[in-house]
Amino acid sequence: MLHPRLLAAACSLVLAWGCAQGHTLPSGQGGAGGSGGAGGAFTCPVGTTHCGGTDCVPATMACDGTCEIGFFACTGGGCVPESFQCDGVPDCADGSDEKPKNPACGTGACTAGLFTCQDGTCVPSGFQCDGEKDCADGSDELPLNTACM
C-alpha cells in the first residue's frame, strides 16, 4: 500500500505530466475532472488552477509547469510541500525529495528520529522492524537488520 502522501504526489505527478506535455481532454471534461459551467464556461475542480481551455493543473503548480512558492519541484515532475523534503519519507514518485537524490538532505547520517538504510536513504525510525521493507534495500528489516531479533 502506498503512503498517503506518496499516493497524492503520484496523482499530482500524473496530472502535472499530462498538462506539461500539452495534453488536454475534450471540451468540458478538464484535465482533472473539470466541467462545463453555465453557458459552456469551463471550470476546474477544487484544488486545481485553470490554465486556459480545458487545462487544469494542481494548485501547487503554475500554468508554466513550475512549482508555486513553498513547494519543492520533484525531478520527475510534480510538486510537494518544501516541508516534506528530507523528512525520510519519499513524497516525489522518483524519490528526488530525499537522500541520496536530493543534495539538500546532506550526505551524513540521518537526523534524529530517522533510521539510516544501508543505501544511505532515511526512513522514519518507527518503520524499522515493522515487517514491511521501507528501505529499498530492505535493511530496515530482518535478516539485514539484526536489531529486529
Question: Main β-sheet: number of strands, strand sense, barrel status?
Answer: 2 strands, antiparallel
Helix content: 10-25%
Rounded Rg: 19 Å
What structural category arises from helix and sheet content? alpha+beta
Would you mind describing this structure in some detail?
With 149 residues, this protein is of the alpha+beta class. The protein has a domain at 4-86. The chain is 11% helix and 15% strand. The protein has one helix and eight strands; from the N terminus they run H-E-E-E-E-E-E-E-E. The chain has one helix at residues 4-20, and strands at 35-36, 42-43, 48-50, 56-58, 71-73, 79-81, 114-116, 122-124. The strands form four sheets. A two-stranded antiparallel ribbon has the order 1-2. The longest helix has 17 residues, at 4-20. It is elongated and about 60 Å long. Mean pLDDT is 73; it is low at 1-33.
Short description:
The chain is of the alpha+beta class. It has one helix spanning 4-20; strands spanning 35-36, 42-43, 48-50, 56-58, 71-73, 79-81, 114-116, 122-124.
Task: Give me some keywords for this one.
149 residues; alpha+beta; two-stranded antiparallel sheet; two-stranded antiparallel ribbon; 8 strands; 15% strand; elongated; disordered N terminus
SSE inventory with pairings:
Layout: H1 4-20, E1 35-36, E2 42-43, E3 48-50, E4 56-58, E5 71-73, E6 79-81, E7 114-116, E8 122-124
